[in-house]
Amino acid sequence: MSLPGAYQTDLPAVPPWLNKGDNAWQMTAATLVGLQSMPGLVILYASIVKKKWAVNSAFMALYAFAAVLICWVLVGYRIAFGDKLLPFWAKGAPALGQKYLIGRARVPETTHYYSNGNIESPMLEPFYPMAAHVYFHFTFAAITMILLAGSVLGRMNIKAWMAFVPLWLIFCYTVGAFSLWGGGFLYHWGVIDYSGGYVIHLSAGISGFTAAYWVGPRLKSDRERFPPNNVLLMLAGAGLLWMGWSGFNGGAPNAANVAAPLAVLNTNISAATSLLVWTTLDVFYFGKPSVIGAVQGMMTGLACVTPGAGVVQAWAAIVMGILSGSIPWFSMMILHKKSTFLQQVDDTLAVFHTHAVAGLLGGLLTGLLAEPTLCSIILPVSNTRGAFYGGSGGMLFLKQIVAALFIIGWNIVATTIILLAIRLFIPLRMSDEQLMIGDDAVHGEEAYALWGDGEKYDPTRHGWHGSDSPQETIPTGIVNGARGVTINL
């Protein structure tokens, strides 16, 4: 019986190495991760800030998503996943040619050797085209950039942000990505960062906190009162973030194998546990559950499980959720208020606590809880195990600490240099006049055209029901307001 055309291996569109299941899942996973940023974080940022900053916050995320993609295909991808230049950096080159993009995906520096020179694990060559790998990792780079933006919302000069995005991507993000994923020194040393606890969350949290220091604080009035302008829409953005995380961690094995569904399940277990723990602590400490607190707890659970989602057991995901719902809660709600230094730095959305603390916690817990059998499925270094399982596990925990220190140090130094260089040409912080007005001063646009900001209904300006007729008047019994607001009975 002849095979349908789509499954014949001799067709130009179906080379022998192509696995359609892996290819389909990788593109789906990439789309899910992309949805976390656009529209997920765009909606979340626009809703969680004051109304006067809704447009600016959403635009910072939107711009970053677009700018990162262009920089990624021009040079970024091959700095992170190309041929080795330095132990922590690869040679940059475009990822644009059709011959390169439709060929089989490969990460050239991932061949791992024993000490005697024999190959321990072959080069990473997934069974899908290079274009799928380029796009999947673009979505990772984009969300890292957008998470970082959460630290400087409400006051960073938009022109400075536009210059910062490509520079940070090239000189900061790619270093962590190559070192831990692309075949750099931490990858071959055996450090585990399954899907970005260090490359994404620790990096975004540390760089965001550093950027917040150099940019400076919001206006005092904004720091003292910064309520979300739309809590329900904020929850919609948070929901996209949570559900998109299935692609985030499910796509990390580069195949639709047994590790992918386990990682997806662990991701959701950790997020749910962390949300419940955070909410419980809010109730005990403040007397009432907070919706914003629940979203924070969800994010810390997701960030914490990410470095080990595919190499820990489900009960370990619960442990991660319990700790990620309590330790970042303590650092944000208790420690932050007692630390003069932490209070001096205006980290708008507390990215340091929700991502840096949670990502670091997850990386260290992975060093304790990584299960040997699961590690053997996807990791290049054999006999990898967490300290909880004895043997060489204690060494893995030490490696996780060293890798975290490298990421922290590099992000502090590189982010500082980039911002100080930009400051020579562009002010990092908006003027006080712009900070007072908000979106209208920065973009000439406002988020909402709604009654309720103190403006009274004026029939000479607006007419009734928006009519252009000058003869149309307000119906009897309605005074100074939108219909049904103030009624004379």
Automatic annotation (TrEMBL):
It comes from Nicotiana attenuata. Keywords: Ammonia transport, Membrane, Transmembrane, Transmembrane helix, Transport. This is Ammonium transporter. Residues 24-448 form the Ammonium transporter AmtB-like domain. Its main location: membrane. Pfam families: Ammonium_transp. It is a multi-pass membrane protein. Gene3D superfamilies: Ammonium transporter AmtB like domains. GO terms for molecular function: ammonium channel activity. It is found in: Cell membrane. Belongs to the ammonia transporter channel (TC 1.A.11.2) family. It comes from the Eukaryota. PROSITE patterns: AMMONIUM_TRANSP (PS01219). The chain crosses the membrane at residues 24-46, 58-80, 134-153, 165-186, 198-216, 228-246, 258-278, 290-309, 315-335, 356-381, 401-426. One of its GO terms (cellular component) is plasma membrane.
